[in-house]
Amino acid sequence: MLLVSDIEAVCPPLARGTPRFLRQGVLTIMNQIFNRRAQKEMRQALRQSLPPAELILWSKLRSRQICDQKFRRQFSVGLYVVDFYCPDLKLAIEVDGDSHFQAGEQRRDRKRQAYIESIGIRFLRSRNNEVRENLRGVLEAIYRRILELKGSV
User: Fold this and answer.
1) CA atoms of 151 and 153, how far apart (whole Å)
2) Are 119 and 3 in contact (CB under 8 A)?
3) How many CA atoms lie within 13 A of 102 on its CB side?
4) Could you give the CA distance from residue 35 to residue 14 in angstroms, rounded to a whole number?
5) Labelling 117: which of 37, 77, 93, 123 has CA 20 to 30 A away?
6) Do residues 83 and 54 make contact, with C-beta atoms less than 8 angstroms apart?
7) Of the candidates 74, 64, 63, 6, which has an alpha carbon nearest to the alpha carbon of residue 34?
8) CA angle at residue 39 from 15 to 72, to 5 degrees?
9) pLDDT tier, 8 (very low <50, low <70, confident <90, very high otherwise)
10) 3-state secondary structure labels for all residues of 56-79
11) What's the rounded Cα separation, in Å, for the pair 19 and 42?
12) How many helical (H) and strand (E) elements, i.e. helices and strands, does the chain have?
């Protein structure tokens, strides 16, 4: 399992004027973890068929509407795809639908979340019905989490 310390050891911050071959090496390593080319078509298909609750939440996250933070939708991390991701804060937001509560899915979700957290990404989860029935509460939770993370960044 790849840890943040492993990435930082291999990918230290690059100074201006870093030789091209070094920049490409870092990008290659990062592309093996984030938004892998092999998953591009899957991510595009997921974006085009967002469930209603994700579409509602995306309408509030897009265009830096919350705390001027940029979110991406259907962002891949390793072999997994998270619903929404804020790169600056390393925050993943998941909207759990009915499929997440079927037999075996919660164990799979825990494994997936553990992997994603192991590379330094924090999670915030809500259910479909929370987004539909209490959007304001979900947005307030996101807002509080962003402020908390901005304080620690």
Assistant:
1) 6
2) yes
3) 3
4) 20
5) 37
6) yes
7) 74
8) 60
9) very low
10) HHHHHHHHHCCCCCCCEEEEEECC
11) 33
12) 7, 4
Q: How far apart are CA 43 and CA 40, in angstroms?
A: 5
Cα(137)–Cα(153) distance, integer angstroms: 24
| Alpha-carbon separation of residue 33 from 12, 62, 93, 100, 135 (angstroms) | 16, 23, 18, 23, 31
119-153 per-position pLDDT tens digit: 999 999 999 999 999 999 999 999 999 999 998 65
Q: Which residues pair with 123 in a beta bridge?
A: 92
Nearest to 60 by CA among 141, 5, 116: 141
User: Which stretches of 87-152 are assigned E, i.e. beta strand?
Assistant: 91-96, 122-127
**86: enclosing H helix or E strand:** strand 80-86
Count, residues in the chain = 153
Cβ atoms of residues 67 and 150 within 8 Å: yes
CA-only gyration radius of the chain, Å: 16
